[in-house]
Amino acid sequence: MTFVVIFFAMNMGGSGIAPTFSAVYGGRLIRKRYAVILFTVFVIIGALTLGRGVVKTLSQGIISSSVLNAETALIILTSATMSLFLANLLGIPESTSMVTVGAVVGAGLYFRQLQFKIFLWLIPLWIIFPIISFITTFYIYRKIYPPSHKNLWLYEKIFSNEKELRFLAVLVSCYGAFAVGTNNVANAIGPLVGAKIIDPLTGLFLVAPFFGLGALIFGKENLETFGKEVVPLGLITSNIVCLVTGTLLIIASSLGAPFPYVQLNALSIFAISCVKDGHRFTLSHHITKKTFMVWTLTPLLSVSVSYLLLTLFVKR
Q1: Per-position b or e across 235-272, b if 16+ CB within 10 A of its CB
Q2: What is the value of pTM for the model shown?
Q3: What is the mean pLDDT of the segment spanning 52-79?
Q4: Residue 110 is part of which domain span?
Q5: For the chain, how many structural domains are there in total?
Q6: Is pLDDT above 80 for 255?
């Protein structure tokens, strides 16, 4: 049980540091060591300040806590980890929230204890917030790109305050890490709290540091890849994406909603692509199609694996 929780948290940390700190690392504004330290600190702060609402939803809002025990919690976390691993093999970032909720739903269906009312507001939120992320990013970036006589004053201001911009970029990265902490740490401990293995505050405090360990072990390559080789985002665009998605994720956490940060981040990046390359190019790109396919299939896989493992190992 402990190994699964730690491994799950470390994987989330390894993937979570890339969208939050890749821009400042790629721009050589901060060393890897300090990026990992800042990421860990702000994930812990985010988890302890706003993480308990999401823990409550995952531990008792989707299924009754009466059917959760250590065995069921282990199967839920194992199912989520397997689905996340498949997405990683396919090279598509997947939301830990989606696969965790999927695994909990699988348990709810198996025990016939699924509380459908919560999805009346959760599913619309999952649809509306990524759309807001896309529209907001598109609107902001459309104002500054391409450079023209209308926005020339903005570029002059940016380049004349480059030192302040670099400092702001580090702050925005810390803000993104804080947002990740408010939501994603709950994925690893929600089922454990529901099974009464640990209390929410203790769980958040103990698990959050493993995000940092995962960032240290698994995150270096992601920082190198996303920060220097693949992601065609500059310092300004990365700040826009991180600020927009981080704000929406914090709002979701304050509502107690387990939320797919990956989807928010991806839709925001798609918006940048639409401004630069056009809607047709972005929508027809094979990565876009593959991304939406994986986002659809892996939560369903998580539901199925959870249900199957419970059928094999747990009596109803």
Answers
A1: bbbbbbbbbbbbbbbbbbbeebbbbbbbbbbbbbbbbb
A2: 0.90
A3: 92
A4: 2-313
A5: 1
A6: yes
